[in-house]
Amino acid sequence: MSETIVIGADGVEQMPLKTYTEKAYLDYSMYVILDRALPNIADGLKPVQRRIVYAMSELGLKANAKYKKSARTVGDVIGKFHPHGDSAVYEAMVLMSQDFSYRYPLIDGQGNWGSPDDPKSFAAMRYTESKLTKYAEVLLSELGQGTVDWVPNFDGAMDEPSTMPARVPNILLNGTTGIAVGMATDIPPHNLREVVSACIHLLDAPNASVAELCEHVKGPDFPTDAEIITPPEDLRKMYETGRGSLRMRALWQEEGDDIVITSLPHQTSGSKVLEQIAAQMQAKKLPMVVDLRDESDHENPTRLVVIPRSNRVDAQAVMNHLFATTDLERSYRVNMNMIGLDGRPQVKSLDKILSEWLEIRTNTTRRRLEFRLDKVLKRLHILDALLIAFLNIDEVIAIIREEEQPKPVLMARFDLTDTQAEAVLELKLRQLAKLEEMKIRGEQEELAKERDSLEQTLGSSRRMKTLVRKELLAVAEEFGDERRSPLVVRAEAKAFLEEDIVSAEPVTVVLSEMGWIRAGKGHDIDPVSLSYKSGDRYNLVARGRSNQPVIILDSTGRSYTVAAHTLPSARGQGEPLTGRINPPSGVSFTGMMMGGDEGYYLLASDAGYGFIAKLAELQSKNKAGKAALTLPNGAKVLPPIAIAELTNSYVVAVTTEGRMLIFPAAELPVMPRGKGNKMIGIPSARLASREEYVTAVTIFGERDVLKVISGKRHLSLKFAELEHYVGERGRRGHKLPRGFQKVDALEAISPN
């Protein structure tokens, strides 16, 4: 289809739908970007904010005026300048009045204008009253002095300023947030003194780098006492690119045994923070905290009290956990996107923002001086005529009385312009007093001095810079204050690990043959005597601490992890293990392990291969587990054996042929997963046909007694009696005595 626009026979313009929708969407997006969502670099205001401030100034609501109902202002704004909803205008007013949202509020509100805990809790506009703050004069004071362009309002009935003639870079001082079409802006607030200092440095050194400017602008300055903990190099990178993020952390102190939070990050709700902490307490993820209190009041706007369980609780560790898991530490996106000097949206670096603003400010100052010079010259022009009239008053009066058209006669007689003649004709009788001539000469002298000064300043870039600097310093002197948000480098906060929170009580974990798992307190539980479901019975047991994980090995060699403290009590019959993990169908469970992360276990298959694994490396967060022991064809998993110490331990392996081999455990590799190395030699043909395989394996110490169990008989041997069976790893081993060649189990009995 052609993209050409055609005019139909009925005079209606026709165009392809694709062309129309593209144009309509582009027009809409440009409107949102330029006339709603993004601030202008000149005054740092969005259109709705600019219209509110201007409408209030037109209503006479200056800082020294009486308050007026906010509804009056909202009505003026939407009726004259901003044809949108009243709630949108009022919410913009509220934001500009909140000293916890704006670093330098523009509106002085009376009534309920929201609270830091709930900024949206403000009263309706029919109840609240407002006027402009003294700081708003920084934006408005030069408005009627020819400093800005004026544009028609939405219906063309009146004009409104396209920007405000701000005397300081309000774009950085109060910052702003906004979402347009395809772009957004997030500019944090800054300290007035720091920004003015950077501007003055840039006036002296126009090519100053961002690093040099960062010596003046240390970082953002929010209207809260909470700390900015972003490292200086990250802040500098943020200012260099115009994009980045920063982190804020609450202030706290210890009062006795209590933890008292005294300041929250920007726009953080104290009640939400307490809810987050309370939720952790209910979930038993914060057992070291017993109570919370909100003691905030007028004198202490933020005072949240966290009460530890005892004075032995490490307050710093608790706060580090809360910083990592609650809004006591927050991250803020920075995206310094604004409408620049060229009228286009762009993300700007700090040096570009200040350079462009100084260019705008210099131009504004020039326009103000030119406007004033024009006024001065016009007044001097008229004063010249008035002086001529006073010096020739009798003749002037005679001309006025006698001539039908006195104006051209006056112009011809005294060489006056039309404007001068009109001024002479408009003289009042009271101005003919003798002292009036002295006043005119005095005014002429003053205006002549002012004219010379203005012309000198306009003709000299150095004088212009000096004037801009002087005016910047005057604003900093009047409105500047100390930084509120301290810049502090802090270590990254880390949440408690689960094992840090759970008490380390001794537990016994029992798994039945049908896969039901449970845990009982203490190590003296007899797993066989517990109650089991009909047709079920005891299978595996592991003893450890409640803050340790339980690692389960299945018949395919995969390992799975469950938290011991989350298991049901051994007083019941437990719950299915498959509700917590997802093993392959048809597998059985052959081993359970517990202990510290540094604990070691022997993993082996009945094919005679094995290795030593560190317990931490067998853990898996995946419900499907992880591959641990690789099985040769036809081999089966042997129960894992705990190793107390690697150096003085021996591996004992026995085959179905009654052959036993003992070798140092240190000869086996320590690895996270795999098949392992050959422990005892079995001919491959016999192994493949399953004529011979390993029937039992254990770990044995030099001081232990080895118990060999064969049916109802058992044989107890000390290490000195086993010298015949000690050999190198992988050897064939030697046969046990007759009657013990069919070994059912091996046990290493410690003398302790």
TrEMBL record:
GO molecular function, one term: DNA topoisomerase type II (double strand cut, ATP-hydrolyzing) activity
Quaternary structure (record): Heterotetramer composed of ParC and ParE.
Protein name listed in UniProt: DNA topoisomerase 4 subunit A
Name of the gene this protein is made from: parC
Keyword field contains Nucleotidyltransferase: no
Annotated site (Transition state stabilizer): 126
NCBIfam families associated with the record: parC_Gneg, PRK05561.1
Keyword Plastid: no
Keywords: Cell membrane, DNA-binding, Isomerase, Membrane, Topoisomerase
Entry's family note: Belongs to the type II topoisomerase GyrA/ParC subunit family. ParC type 1 subfamily.
Active site: 127
An annotated GO cellular component: cytoplasm
Site (Interaction with DNA): 46, 82, 84
